[in-house]
Structures are given as structure tokens and as C-alpha cells.
Amino acid sequence: MKSKLFIILFSIILVFPALIGMMRTPINYDIFAYLPENLPSVQGQNIMNKTFGYGGTGILMVKNKTDVEVENLKEKIEKVDGVETVNWITDLADLTLPREFLPEDLVNQFYANDSTMMQIQFQQEAASEKTYHSVQEIKKILGPNVYFAGTPPMLTELRQLLESEMFVYSASGIGFILVLLGLTLPSFIIPILILFSIGVSIIYNLGFPYYVGSSMSYITAAIAGALQLGVTMDFSIFLVHRYEEERKNKEKNEAMIVAIKRTALAILTSSATAVAGFLAMVPMALGIGQDLGITMARGVIFSVLLILTLLPSLILVFDKWIQKVQHPVFIPSFQRLAQVVTRKYKVIFVVFLLLFIPAVIGLKNVNVIYDIDQLMPKSLDSIKNLDVIKKDFPSTDSAFLVMDQTLSDQDRITIKKQVENMDGIKKVISYDTFADPTIPSEFIPENLKTMFMRDNYIYMLVQMEYGSYDERTTQAIQQINNMIKPYEGHIYLTGQSVLQNDLTKTVQDDIKKVDLISIVAVLLIIALALRSIALPVILVGGIELAIYFNQGLDFYLGRSMPFIGSFAIGAIQLGSTINYAILLVTRYKEELENLSKVEAMYRALKASGKAILSSALALFAAVIGIYIFSDISLLRDLTFMIARGAIISLAVILILLPAVLLTLETFTSKLTLGWPKIKMEKQQKRTVESIDLAK
């Protein structure tokens, strides 16, 4: 503790490069960018991006404009830096030619009622910085009766919305946590010191990716700070409570040394379970799991380091003011709850087992939303514009069949006919749609050839009859993939509908993987920490019930769950709230040294209930602000599930878990090293009521 001033100064100095890194870390707004590279759809998309300039594609519908006005708008957009090309009917036919003389397929492709549609191809991916600025420039050009939609404008608007809301997320989290800590800690200064310490660790964590050349998904960027604050808040509460206890009869430096020694093991064990839960997402095939998992695991480590170094240093420096500014603590007594739970533990144990039935039913039947468009804010102009466009051009969902030159003309024509005859496919547009194969290549307009054929590749546009997430579209995609299997490595089916379909399958496969890894990892950590085979099963079983209820509750509420909640909630809730169960069981074990099991649990609940309540409310308070203030439904739904999960875990640990531990006491004692023997004499002679009377 002699180096406290150095620790404070050094920690503050490191904040400045971390802030620079935080501001410069690239944020990725494209979920599809996290699909595994070995998927044929991703490989095909890469070919479309590099060869045909389909890095990002937007659609523009113009109403009540003459063809000349539309052509002028097209030329202006083509001059915008970052735009590869703008496809419209003038690329295939002369405007002076009456529409009646043009092929019907060609007219229907670009005209409907009083509207016409063009396609804007950008030079880079939809989420790139260059496309972001290009979209902004295009919007300046557009006038009334023009509707701009597609992935590039959607991601641009999503980015602008998130950037405008980020400050509110931080401010709400800090505000709610300050109120909570102000009520539950005996000094108004300590909450500020805790927030400062964890705040510094959050800045370190979010600034780190820049210095290792990494990016971050917008989901991670939005929730990582709040989640890190909520998950690691209880570590600092453990330390502060122990310091206050030791400070009553020791000098401040000695009291802090003892507090660190006595809480370090508990903090490290708790942080290890949190890290294990987050790292369980890293092996996911969907890269967003690795992004969120590594960021949060790293954040927990940073928080632990600063809670054991910076926070003690700050407390010692401000100890005089901390002692002066004291106030009563507003935490309810857990005496009544402890009485009910310990008296009725056999009934509660049966309830615990029965609750798995509705929890599992809800989990199995809850509707999971994988459609990215459905998870976007309805307030975005691009989403509103897409709804307008679909009224005139219902077939805005499309896919691409991209193939190399090893396929013969006859193979291509056969594939096109087979795809067109499939249910769920409206039309297949290709080079052959506008040019008769019998006509020599030199007589075909160059712009038509370059539109569909470049380098060694040629593609077809497959227009879907139904939406991306419609079951009939999924079946059509599966049929096409089965049909082109003989040409594997030479032909690829890609596009948003296909990527959306692969996202669904990838997440569904990842869920089982994440659940298994997180459960096994936490089981091993608890087994080693508590030297038990029984306790890991009991504690993880309790938290898994809370997780099942959290994920399945939306089924009973008539709500849907975002796909990220299907894998992230299990890992986050298990890693974050298992600490509460560990705190209860360690105190229970301590009380068993001198008391019967019922008395021991009664005292354990009374003693640890306040800390468990504070920790769960801290996680709730840290993320609930995002749910309240965010316009981004994906973030709202995810943070609501995290906040709700903290409360459900709190209820399970304080009400159900004690009953399980009491009922399975014999099982626990036989499979746990060093577990105290039950004091049978005291159990027969004393009751919970007699303890209250003695007090």
C-alpha cells in the first residue's frame, strides 16, 4: 500500500492512450461479416464483391419522375466517390425506344405503376467507412419522392443512431449504479471510487482492440461497457464490505491488506467463472461470439486487476473523507425470507424440480428471430423506404448464382430453367435474358456483358417470391444448393437471403456448443474451488433453471427472442450470476461448522442475502438503461434479457437453491472434501425461532 499514489497516477496516465484506441477502434455494423469463411455463400459473396463490385448494394425507387429526370439523378449518383455503378434500364436499352418495343421482363425489372427502380453498387462492403460516406453524399442528392433502401443505407443509419445513443447508455448506467450503491453502501464517496476504478478498466478494455489491429461489432461496442460494469461490480462490493469490517479495529493500511488477502480468492474464483462463461462463446462458428466473448473476458480481467490495485489505493487516499461522510444503509432484512425458506425447504425443493417443466417447454417453443431486418429499428428511413418500395416491387429479396467459366453455356441454361421452375422463385435474370445465345458475342453491347460477366465469372440474379425468412424461401435455397452440388467449387449461391439462411443454421449449431462449453467450464472451476463433485452440479443446475426461465419466458409473454439471446444469454447469465450461488454456499459451509443444516442455512441467507441482492441489482442497473433508452430493438431485447436474467437468478438463489442444498445435504457431504458434519444434537434441540428469540 506504499505505492498507492504511483498506482493511481500510472492508471490515469494509461487512460489517455486507451481513450485514443477507444475512439479509433473500427466498429462493424454488418452481422453477415461474422459468418464463417468456409461457407459457400460467403465464398460466393466474396467473388461478387471483388469481381462485380457488389461490396454493398442499395436500391433506389423514384416515383412520379420522367425518364430524363431519373437518368439525370442516375448520373449524379454515379459521380459520388465510392459508387461503383448505378444499374438502370439505360444500361440495357435506349431511352428513345418506346417501352412497348422493349422485352416485358426488362420493363418489369425497372418499372411498376408510376415508379422506377435502380440499383446502386458500391465499391466497398456495406459496412465500410467509404460506403458510409458515400451513402451520406447520395442522401444529399436525393429529393422528394425518392426512396433509398438496402443494406448500405440501413447500416449507415444504424451507425448514426448508435453513435447518438452511446452517451445515454453510459450516463444511464452510471446514474442507476450510483443510486444503487448510494443506498447499499455506507458512504457516498465509495460509489464514486468504485465507478472510477471500473470505468478506467472499461476504457482500457474498449481501447485495447485498436492496438492489436482488431475491430468490434456494434453489439459488443454498445453493451460491453455496461455489461462489464454490472458483472464486475460485485467484486468491488466484496472488497469494500471486508475493508469496512476490518477498519473497525485496524489501521487503514493494515485493514486494506487483510481485506485484499481475505477477498482475493473469492474475487478470483468468481471472476474465473465469469471469464469461463464469456470464453465459451469464442469457439462459435459465428464470429460475433468470439468478438463478444473475448471482449468481455478481457474486460473482467482488467476489472479484477484494477479492483485489487487502483480501488484499494483510492480508498486509502480518501479514507478520511469516507469515514466522515457516512449514512444509513437501505437494504431490507432477509430474516423473514430465511425463516420461510428454511421451514418449508422440502416443499420448495419439489417446486424447484417441477419448475423445470414450464421452463423447458417455454425454451423449446419460444420464437427466435433470425431475420436481421426485423431486428432493425423501425424508425430508420431505410426500413420505412423498403416498406414503400415493396408495395410496387414485392420481389426485393434476391439471391445470386455466381459460377466460373468451367460451366458450359448449356449447363448454365439448364440450371437457369431448373431454378425458375422451383417453388418460391419468381424469376431468374441473367445475360441470356437480354441476349440470345445464338447471337455472336461481338454484337452484344459491352455494358450488358460487363454487367453479368467479368474476368472468369458470370452470375444470375434469382428473384425470390417470398421474404428472406419465409420457410418457402428456405426450402427453395435448399433445393438450389442440392441441385448445384455436382458443380461444387465452381458455382455458388449467395446473396442476403442465402446469408440469412446460413446465419440461422450457424447460430442453431452454435447454441449447443456454447451451452456445453460454458457448463463444463463452470462445473470444473467450481469443482476445483470448492473441492466437490456435488456442489457444481447443484449450483449450475440452479442457474440453468434461471436461464431456461429467462429464455423461455418470452413464449408465455407472447414475445420473440433475438437470435443473439439464444446463445449469449446462457453464457452471460451463467458466468455472471453463478457467483451469487458460490457466495451463498461458502457462507453455508462456514456456518455448518457450528450449527445444524437448517440453522446454518438460516444464518447464511441472512448474512449473504444483502450482498447477493446488491450484486444482482448492480447487473440489472448497469444494462437496463440501454433497454429503456435505445431505439435499436436488437440491443433493447438483449439487454432486457440480461437484466431480467439477473433478477430471475436472484430469485432462484435466494428462494430455491437453499432448499436444494438442505434436501441434498447428505449427497453434498459425501461428495465434497472437507464438508462439515451436521450438528445433529443442535438440529434436534434448536430451531430457527429459538435463534430469533435469543437475539
CATH superfamily caption of the domain at 1-30 and 185-329: Multidrug efflux transporter AcrB transmembrane domain
CATH topology group of the domain at 1-30 and 185-329: Multidrug efflux transporter AcrB transmembrane fold
Q: Overall mean pLDDT score? A: 87
* CA radius of gyration: 30 Å
The major sheet is characterized as:
5 strands, antiparallel
Intertermini distance:
39 Å
The count of strands amounts to 14
Q: Would you state the CATH class of the domain at 1-30 and 185-329?
A: Mainly Alpha
CATH architecture of the domain at 1-30 and 185-329: Up-down Bundle
Helix content: 55-70%
- Approximate strand percentage: 5-15%
Low-confidence stretches: 681-685
Sum up the overall morphology in one term.
elongated
What structural class do you assign from the helix and strand content? Answer: alpha+beta
- Tell me the number of helical segments per DSSP (H or I, 4 or more residues long): 27
Describe the secondary structure blueprint for this structure.
Blueprint: H1 4-24, E1 27-28, H2 40-52, E2 56-63, H3 67-78, E3 83-87, H4 104-110, E4 111-112, E5 115-122, H5 129-141, E6 146-150, H6 151-184, H7 189-211, E7 216-217, H8 218-247, H9 252-279, H10 287-307, H11 310-317, H12 319-324, H13 335-343, H14 345-365, E8 367-369, H15 381-392, E9 398-404, H16 409-420, E10 425-429, H17 431-434, H18 446-452, E11 453-454, E12 457-464, H19 471-483, E13 491-494, H20 496-530, H21 534-557, E14 560-562, H22 563-592, H23 597-629, H24 633-663, H25 665-670, H26 680-685, H27 688-694
Parallel strand pairs: 1-7, 8-14
Antiparallel strand pairs: 2-5, 2-6, 3-5, 4-5, 9-12, 9-13, 10-12, 11-12
Helix pairs in contact: 1-7, 1-11, 5-6, 6-7, 6-8, 6-23, 7-8, 7-10, 7-11, 8-9, 8-10, 8-23, 9-10, 9-20, 9-22, 13-23, 14-21, 14-24, 20-21, 20-22, 21-22, 21-24, 22-23, 22-24, 23-24
Pfam family, one: MMPL
InterPro entries: MMPL_dom (IPR004869), Mycobact_MmpL (IPR050545), SSD (IPR000731)
Keywords: Cell membrane, Membrane, Transmembrane, Transmembrane helix
